[in-house]
What does this fold into?
Amino acid sequence: MAVFKYTARNADGKQMTGTVNAADRNGAVEQISAQGLFPIDVSEDGGKTPSKPMRSTVVLPDDAPRPRRRSKPKLRDLATYSRQLANLLKAGMPLTSALSSMVNLETGGISSEVSQSLLHSVREGRNLSAAMGDYPETFPEMYINLLRAGESAGSLVEVLQRLADHYERFAKVREMVGQALMYPAFVLGLGFMLIFVFMSFILPRFMKIFEGMKVTLPLSTQILQGLSDFFATWWLLVLAGLAMTFFILRAYLKSTAGRERLHSWILEAPLIKKVVRPNLFGQFARTLGALLRNGVPVLTALKITEGVVQNVVLQEAIALTREGVTDGKTLAQPLAKSGVFPKLMVDLIHIGEQTGDVPASLENLAETYENELESNLRTVTTMIGPILIVFIAAVVAFMLVGVLQAMFKITSSIGAQ
It folds into this structure.
């Protein structure tokens, strides 16, 4: 048995020092964690075993779990993982025991191998945030920074609960948008399928009947016949043209200029902006508010938020805001100067700066924009559905009229004979 000196933080964030007797350093870390402390530095008394620094990477031994590379987890998965870990810690479990339990719990897109690797890293004396930093494809930068802030303040449970709330809200908004788009997508898909079946199978049969009769077909029927013949003859060329257009457009939209143009248009396009703008502004306010609420420095918080908001125009505005704050300006000043953010947001952030509670202002803004998004989604869905139905009905009606006019013409010509 050897004596190990340690420096750790308790649940209140207070730094403590002491010694424990253990066979090795891993055993010392487990004893410290079992006391409800978060180890910061552990070394053998006498300097024989130097403390391992809290690195951003770790070399695992042969028997340590090595997680396979997996796809990025869903927002619900992150929320569930955070909630379960917070509940275990809140029940009084040491961090190592909680992570050991997480290995056996069902957490969706976060594999048990990741939890095993985190457990091993924490037993080695690393902070949980540093261990999670080894898996950026699983835990986003925002997640790790909030966790690091919680560890420094001794409020890991509270931060995990806030992270769970945060990702649950984001997941709810994303699901809400997806559900709102399902009905228009279904109507549009069904309409194009009906048009394809009519033009490919039904119309050609009628055309064979009309060809045997020496009657001048109506203009609408001639247009339909021309379209049918064109697609029947040049369908391969049409598909090649569509594929080429798709890849050219895709390449352009991946370029900086293309993304800027598309994202600028999305922010100003009628109907679309009613969904996109409150969604983006809500993301900005919710993310920045959560980071500032948990003690993340404003410049770091803005940098992380810039990566969360998936719009080039807003990202550039946030980058300019970060430069302005670096130069000593308040948060509201560069936001107003960018011309991208609405006056309501700028004014409420300014009030928050005056009262000394910017996170509360941002949280109120997030709720405002999320409610606006929900209301606008209902409005836009209600409007788009009938518009698509009328459009498809008009196309189908034109095709039916073309066929019926030809039949009436043939019938009248036979009656005249």
Summary: The first helix runs from residue 25 to 34.
